[in-house]
Design brief:
heterodimer; A: 295 residues; mainly alpha; 2 domains; 13 helices; 76% helix; B: 295 residues; Rossmann fold; six-stranded mixed β-sheet; 9 helices; globular
């Protein structure tokens, strides 16, 4: 017993920093590792290459694209020449419309995909019914669904959301099912020994055991939702970041195109981080185990 | 609530608990398909006497784990009977607790949650009574300070002790230990053996302990059942009459040494057969005479 106390050292006179103090602590700490500097160096190098190609050296064919300085000037201008900047309402409307569509699509896909995948992983019989259909539909590229979606649903909104939902549903379902498959048999046996009913096993073993895979799936699925949404908005849409890009292309204005792309990248990254944070919060056991391994 | 705690304490002091016996009569088990069958266990007769610690040793791959699965009720014999207190085994239940080879603690539950998992699901021990019992067992296995840690945050030895506590709280009629200390380093293994022995000697719960280590078998056992190479049959039963409580020094006594020589001789013979059946070659032919002088 006495050797245990030595393993777990707590310092009662030192309190863990919270709130703003924690932010300061984290920033200070991050400046002591090379990671932060490498991140900024990477971004700078990328911007510099872009500038060099389009504005510095004006390489053939690249000279027609807007360089980082042109884009930045337009982006921060109160009265943008090509119609889109941080100070125009329409910019936020495009973002809002796309985000709302992704949120609905991702929500519906998760709401259907996770339970579907859990049951497919858990019940052999249910998997026999459903898996072949899933595997046949899954490889069909989302763009191939566009005509059907337009025929099936009225207006702009419904077909676009349908397409994004479909794409992310397949990813979520498959990953969830694989997550159930990945659970070690020993846990089922242990639960069986302890006298668990099927429902207890489902709640306490199947669902939490599949969570790491589910969240890997959700991170991929929100990315897939974004890209199929944009593809759909390009084909059929009235608003949204995908529409913004294709509309700019049609009207031969290049800067809004680039602004749309950068915005997509940024918003997509933020949503992905949000999914990851939710996953880490739900899977403390997983996070702490990884932390112990120094990750 | 008062009624609950009363019921719980009555169950916990059930005098017949842990004094059960298991009999295997002519048990056979094969694996394979219609065209090729491999017999893993062949007309096996073993008796696990009440209040005794029966150790099963055998060459690796001889069917020890299959035997555990049959007694635990995870799998069923092709022919023959497995009787727990004269009643046939019909499936896994809390009266036969298995401590598995690699840890089967549920990684998304803390040590405490793992320990209370069984009683909580069945609802036979609740509230304060459950908490007290869990804390008592945690203290007993030296993990009080680690009750809110996840299994992956514990060392190998701690995990095994947590698993022992999780089994013991269910007050099983028989404990089945399937090479429970495999994978631990020599030092932790020695400590765990002594710890386990103390637990056993305290209340003499009927115990089946499977191992491939002869020293471990002699140190722990009342009786050692030596199994043959696949298909598993009983080669011999050795009574270990070393006095209890035991300590490590007894392993170097002449009695222990005699038992070791006897068991080693048989195991070596069986290992040779296993080598021959596996490679189709005789060990002596393959490596030259005297090449097998490891013993």
């Amino acid at each position: 017993m006495s050797q245990n106390t030595a393993i777990l050292t707590t310092r009662p006179n030192l309190t863990r920093p919270r709130g703003l103090a924690k932010v300061f602590y984290d920033v200070k700490k991050s400046l002591t590792t090379p990671t932060t500097y490498l991140v900024f160096a990477g971004i700078f190098l990328w911007l510099f290459t872009w500038w060099l190609l389009c504005e510095g050296l004006k390489v053939d064919r690249f000279d027609k694209l807007p360089g980082p300085i042109t884009v930045a000037k337009e982006f921060f201008s109160v009265q943008p020449f090509q119609g889109i900047s941080l100070f125009t309402d329409i910019y936020y409307e495009h973002i809002w419309v796309s985000c709302r569509r992704v949120a609905i699509a991702f929500g519906v896909a998760t709401g259907i995909g996770v339970p579907l995948g859990l049951f497919m992983g858990w019940s052999k019989r249910f998997r026999d019914y459903s898996f072949p259909i899933l595997e046949t539909l899954r490889p069909i590229p989302i763009l191939a669904w566009v005509p059907l979606a337009i025929l099936m649903f009225p207006g702009f909104e419904a077909p676009v959301i349908f397409l994004a939902t479909l794409a992310s549903l397949f990813v979520t379902t498959l990953n969830t099912m694989l997550g159930v498959d990945s659970i070690d048999d020993a846990y089922f046996r242990a639960a069986g020994c302890l006298g668990s009913s099927n429902w207890d096993i489902f709640k306490n073993v199947v669902v939490p055991g599949a969570l790491p895979f589910i969240f890997t799936g959700l991170q991929i699925s929100i990315g897939v939702a974004w890209f199929s949404l944009v593809a759909a908005e390009m084909v059929s849409g009235d608003l949204g970041l995908g529409y913004l890009i294709v509309d700019a292309y049609v009207n031969s204005v290049t800067v809004p195109m680039v602004i749309g792309m950068i915005t997509l990248g940024f918003v997509g990254w933020v949503t992905s981080v949000m999914v990851r944070m939710l996953g880490n919060w739900l899977m403390q056991w997983h996070v702490r185990a990884l932390a112990l391994q120094g990750r | 609530m008062a009624q609950d705690t009363l019921d719980a304490s009555v169950k916990a002091t059930d005098p017949t608990a842990g004094k059960s016996k298991v009999e295997l009569r002519n048990v056979s088990k094969s694996y394979g398909d219609e065209w090729e069958q491999e017999r893993v266990i062949d007309r096996l007769n073993v008796e696990i006497k009440p209040g005794e610690l029966t150790v099963i040793v055998g060459p690796s791959g001889c069917g020890k784990s299959t035997l555990v699965n049959l007694i635990a009720g995870f799998d069923f014999p092709d022919s023959g009977e497995i009787l727990l207190d004269d009643k046939p085994v019909t499936g896994p239940a809390r009266d036969r607790m298995v401590v598995f080879q690699e840890t089967a603690l549920i990684p998304w539950q803390t040590t405490y949650q793992n320990i209370v998992f069984g009683p909580k699901l069945r609802g036979d021990l609740r509230g304060k009574a459950l908490q007290q019992e869990a804390d008592r067992l945690l203290a007993k296995v030296g993990l009080s300070e680690f009750k809110h840690k996840y299994p992956l945050q514990l060392s190998g030895g701690m995990q095994r002790r947590a698993e022992l506590a999780r089994a013991l709280i269910n007050n099983p009629r028989i404990m089945i230990m399937d090479e429970p200390f495999r994978g631990l380093d020599a030092m932790s293994r020695g400590l765990m053996q002594e710890f386990f022995l103390r637990l056993f000697e305290e209340n003499r719960r009927t115990n089946l302990f499977v191992t491939s280590e002869i020293d471990e078998a002699i140190f722990l056992a009342d009786r050692i059942v030596v199994l043959s190479n696949r298909p598993a049959q009983v080669r011999t039963v050795i009574e270990v009459n070393l006095p209890r409580p035991r300590d490590y020094k007894m392993l170097s006594s002449p009695e222990a040494y005699a038992i070791k020589r006897e068991a080693m001789g048989i195991l070596h013979e069986e290992a040779m057969k296993s080598f021959k059946s596996g490679s189709g070659a005789d060990f002596a032919e393959a490596y030259g005479k005297g090449g097998g002088g490891g013993h």
